[in-house]
Amino acid sequence: MNAPNSFRAQPDDRGHFGQFGGRFVAETLMPLILDLEREYIAAKADPAFQAEFDDLLEHYVGRPSPLYYAERLTEALREGAPEGMGAEIWFKRDELNHTGAHKINNCIGQILLARRMGKTRIIAETGAGQHGVATATVCARFGLPCVIYMGATDVARQQPNVFRMKLLGAEVVPVTSGAATLKDAMNEGLRDWVANVHDTFYIIGTAAGPHPYPELVRDFQSVIGREAREQMLKRTGKLPDMLVAAIGGGSNAIGLFHPFLDDASVQMLGVEAAGEGLDKRHAASLAGGAPGILHGNRTYLLQDEDGQITEAHSISAGLDYPGIGPEHAWLRDIGRVEYTAVTDTEALDAFQLLCRTEGIIPALEPSHAIAAVAKVARTMPRDKVILANLCGRGDKDIFTVAEALGVQM
Amino acid sequence: MTRLASAFTRAADQGHAALVTFVTAGDPAPNATAAILDALVAGGADVIELGMPFTDPMADGPAIQAANLRSLAAGTTTADVLAIATAFRARHPEVPMVLMGYANPMTRRGPEWFASAARDAGADGVICVDIPAEEDDSLGEALRAAGIGNVRLATPTTDAARLPAVLEGASGFLYYVSVAGITGLQQAATASIEAAVARLKAATDLPIAVGFGVRTPEQAAAIGRVADGVVVGSAIVELVGRHGADAAEPVRTYIESLKTALVAARKEVA
C-alpha cells in the first residue's frame, strides 16, 4: 500500500479512516451526531474554547504530566539482556492526573462541548470505572447530572470506582445484559441516548463510536503526545525511538501516537489484551478479530462467522472490549503502527515489576504496555529510547491483583 | 408492481392500513418460527418483518433484546434465518417479507453476498437499523443492485433538511419510528404522528408505515387512520416469549384483534 503524505490527516469528511470508522447509528441519533460534528468544528476554531480547555487541563487536571526516566526498571531489564542491549525506558506519567488516569483529558473536552451545545444531562459508559470516575468528576465540576452505565461484572470487580462515582454525585446503573461488561454498558448508553437526544450528551470514553467521536477523543487525548514530544526533545535532544501504549478502545495510545505519526524514525507499538492467551479467551480484536460494524463504527471486532459479537476477556476491565478504535484499525492495516498482545499473566508480572523497581503501582491497563516494553527493550540497543504511556494508576486494581495472586485481603 | 407495493395498495383498496408485523427469526428456536409466521399471516398480517438476531441489539428495548438472546441461545445462524425466509416464501408466495436487523450480521460476508442471499430467500426488502443514509454504500447499493427494497427509517429527529437524504435511495416503504427511543417502551401522541405522516407524505410517494410502541388494537387503529401501515413488534415478541413453542395460536388471535381494529378504523371516520 502507498504511504499517504501524512498519517495525521484522517479521518475524511465522512469520518472514515480508510475503510474504518464512519457513522453507523440509528437514524434517531444521526441528526445529533451531525450537530456534534458541526459544534466540534466550530469549537476547534474558537480560541476561547481551546483556552478554557488548556486552562482546565493545567489547573484542574494537573498538566503537563511529567516525563520520567525509569532508571531502575531500565537496569532491571538490562540484566539478562544480550550484551549492549536494553533500551532506556521512559514514562509519560498520565497516571498522576486528577482522577488517576488519562480519561479526564477527554472528559474535560467533551463536557465543554456539551455545554456549548446546551445539553443539560450527561451519560457515559465505563469498563474499569476510570472513564466513569472522570465523567462523574467533570459533571460535578460543571454541575450537570450524570448517569454512568457499567456492566454488572465490572461493578463487582471495580467497587472502589463505583463508590467514587457515587461520591461524585453520579448515578451508576449496573447493566446485566450479555457478559455484563463494557460492550453491554455501551449498548445501554446508546439506548439511553436515543431516548433522550433532546437534552443528553453522551461522553464516549474511548477513541471509538460514530464519527466525530474517534476524532475528537483523539484530539483531546493528543495533549499526551504533544507534551511528551516537547518534553522528550527538551530532556534528551531527540525523539524517542519507540512509543508503547496499551489498547482497549485505544484512546491513550492514539493520544500518545498521533502527534508522532509523521516522525518516520519513531516506531510505535500498541498492546492489546491477550487475556488467557490468543487461542483462548482474550480481548485482542486486531490479533483475533475481523472488520465489522458495532457501536457506530466499522473496525476490527471479535466476532463469529455470522457477525455475532463474541465476548472479550481480560483481567483488566478497561481492556475488556471486543472492538478497537477505527484509527488503530487503519494504522494497523497501513502498517504505520505495530500491534502486539500481552496475557493476563504477563501483565500481572509487569505490574509487580514496576511496583518494585520504580515505586509506582500501575493500573492493569498500562501493565500490559509495561509487559510489552519488558520484552522489546531487551531486543533494542542501550542507546535507544522507549517511551511508554503510564495511562493510569493501580489503586483501583489492588483487589483484582490480590485475588489473582492468591492473597486474601 | 413489487409484492410490497401490491400489499400496501391492496390494503388501501380494502380501506385499511397495512398491518406490518415483526418477529425475531429463531425465537424460541429455528424450527418454531414457521408456525409463528403462518399465524401472523392467518391473523391478517399484510407485511412480515423477519428479525435477524444479533448479540448487541442496541436500538431495541427489553422485549426484542430478550428475543434476540433466546434465538441465539437456540443456536440460530444466518443460514437458519435465510432458510426460514425461503420456506416462508414457498408457503406464502404473495405475502411481502423484509429482513430486519443490524449491520454486522448483514454485512459480515459482504453487502453483495447478503443482498443476493436475501433476494434468493424471497425477501422483498431489508431494514438495517444502524446503516443510515450516510453509509449507504455499506449495504444500500448492493440491495438496489439485487433489486430488493432498501427500507429506510425516519424518526422525529429527521428534520426537513435531512429528509431528502434519507429518502434518496429508499424503496419499498418508509418506516416512521414514531418516538425517539428504543423499541417497545412508549408510544407517541396520535396528533404528532399525524403531523409527521403528513410531512413525510409531502416528500415521498413511498407508503409510510408507523411503528414503535404500538400494542393495543386502539393504538393501531388510531395510527391506521393516518398512516399507510402500522408496525407491531415488541407486543408479538412478548407473546412468543411467554408462550414459546406454543405461541402460534395466541399470536394469531392477537393479530386478528389488531387487524379487526385497523379495518374498522377508517370505516368509523367515513
UniProtKB/TrEMBL annotation, chain A:
- Coiled-coil blocks: none
Record's GO cellular component terms: cytoplasm
Do the record's keywords include Amino-acid biosynthesis?
Answer: yes
Residue positions of the PTM N6-(pyridoxal phosphate)lysine?
A: 103
Per UniProt, what is one Pfam family of this protein? PALP
Biological or metabolic pathway of the protein: Amino-acid biosynthesis; L-tryptophan biosynthesis; L-tryptophan from chorismate: step 5/5
* Enzyme class, first EC level, given as a word: lyase
Which cofactors, if any, are listed as required?
Answer: pyridoxal 5'-phosphate
Q: What is its EC number?
A: 4.2.1.20
GO molecular function of the protein, one example? tryptophan synthase activity
Q: Where is the Tryptophan synthase beta chain-like PALP domain?
A: 63-392
Instruction: Work out whether the entry's keyword set contains Protein biosynthesis.
Output: no
Q: Which UniProt keywords apply?
A: Amino-acid biosynthesis, Aromatic amino acid biosynthesis, Lyase, Pyridoxal phosphate, Tryptophan biosynthesis
Q: Which reaction does it catalyse?
A: (1S,2R)-1-C-(indol-3-yl)glycerol 3-phosphate + L-serine = D-glyceraldehyde 3-phosphate + L-tryptophan + H2O
Its assembly, as annotated, is: Tetramer of two alpha and two beta chains.
User: What does this protein's UniProt record list under function?
Assistant: The beta subunit is responsible for the synthesis of L-tryptophan from indole and L-serine.
Family, according to the entry, reads as follows:
Belongs to the TrpB family.
Protein name in the entry? Tryptophan synthase beta chain
The species is: Sphingomonas pokkalii
From TrEMBL, chain B:
Provide the catalytic activity annotation.
(1S,2R)-1-C-(indol-3-yl)glycerol 3-phosphate + L-serine = D-glyceraldehyde 3-phosphate + L-tryptophan + H2O
Molecular functions per Gene Ontology: tryptophan synthase activity
Q: In which pathway does it act?
A: Amino-acid biosynthesis; L-tryptophan biosynthesis; L-tryptophan from chorismate: step 5/5
Name the catalytic site residues. 49 (proton acceptor), 60 (proton acceptor)
One cellular-component annotation, GO: cytosol
What's the EC number here? 4.2.1.20
CDD domains per the UniProt record, alphabetical? Tryptophan_synthase_alpha (cd04724)
Keywords assigned by UniProt, alphabetized: Amino-acid biosynthesis, Aromatic amino acid biosynthesis, Lyase, Tryptophan biosynthesis
InterPro entries listed in its UniProt record = Aldolase_TIM (IPR013785), RibuloseP-bd_barrel (IPR011060), Trp_synthase_alpha_AS (IPR018204), Trp_synthase_suA (IPR002028)
**Which Pfam families does the entry link to?**
Trp_syntA (PF00290)
Q: What does this protein do?
A: The alpha subunit is responsible for the aldol cleavage of indoleglycerol phosphate to indole and glyceraldehyde 3-phosphate.
The family line of this record is: Belongs to the TrpA family.
Q: How does it assemble?
A: Tetramer of two alpha and two beta chains.
Q: What is this protein called?
A: Tryptophan synthase alpha chain
Q: Which organism is it from?
A: Sphingomonas pokkalii
